[in-house]
Amino acid sequence: MQMNGIYASSAPSTVVAKNSQPATKSLAPAGNKASDAVEKYTPSVIDEGQQELRALGGRWIGGREFTSVQGTDYSKNFQDDVSGFLVKSAYERDQLLQRYTGDELSQRLEQYDKQVQLKIEDIAQTTASTLSQYLNFENDSIFGGSKETQEEFLSTYKPIFDKDELAGRIKNMLQEQSQLLGKLQEEHGDQWKQIMEQGGKGITDFRDQLKQAASQAFATESTSFQDISYQDVAGVFDALVHTTSTALNTYSNNTEWEANMLGTARLKLDLYLQQSPMSSAIKGQLTQSVDTAMNTKLRAAEYNDYKSSLMVQPNFRKSFSSPDEMSLEIKRMFDKQIQDPNAKKSEGTIMWESMKGLLNQKPEDIRSGLMNAFNSLHHNMISAPSMQGDVGPKAKLEFANQIRDEKVEDWNSFISSLNMDQQKKDTLTIPKNSIDIKV
Question: Which of 140, 295, 400, 418 is buried most, with the most CB atoms less than 10 Å from its CB?
Answer without folding.
Answer: 400
